[in-house]
Design brief:
two-stranded antiparallel ribbon, 6 helices, alpha+beta, binds zinc ion
């Protein structure tokens, strides 16, 4: 019984006991026993997602303005983050990488005025914000 290769294969795929039971027609208890036998940790649904999939699970587009609200976890400073297997990812850093195809320099912040916004179109790293400020000052005659 404990040698069921089909159950073991799904455990290795990161499926939960419930999903395995549904897929193979075994009981959840059986799936759990086999999981312990092969020494695999209990599967939780959210941990089977990649950070990128988690981002899309947590980010919610607003009705207007093209913003993205964050429904996921935040760090001690209130910055939207994704935590996966002891690694913390910045939600805005991920949006930045997706849009610009490179790692950000310094902190990534939203350039819009919506608190917590993580929209790709609204994030900028430190050099980009400095550039935006310089343009703003050139146009509007900012502080000198
Ligand atoms: Zn925004």
């Amino acid at each position: 019984m404990s040698g069921r290769a089909d159950v073991v294969a799904l455990i290795r795929d990161g499926k939960s006991d419930r999903a395995i039971a549904r897929e193979l027609g075994v009981s959840r208890r059986t799936a759990g026993i086999i999981r312990r036998t092969v020494g695999a940790p209990p599967a939780k649904t959210v941990y089977t997602l990649t950070p990128e999939q988690m981002w899309h699970t947590y980010a919610r587009p607003t009705y207007t303005g093209g913003h993205m609200d964050w429904t996921g976890p935040t760090n001690h400073a209130g910055t939207p983050v994704i935590k996966r297997q002891h690694v913390t990812y910045s939600a805005r850093g991920m949006a930045f990488r997706r849009r610009y195809g490179r790692d950000p320099v310094g902190y990534v912040r939203a350039t819009c005025d919506r608190p917590g916004c993580v929209a790709e179109e609204h994030v900028a790293d430190a050099p980009m914000r400095a550039e935006l400020n310089a343009q703003y000052n050139a146009i509007f005659g900012g502080a000198r």
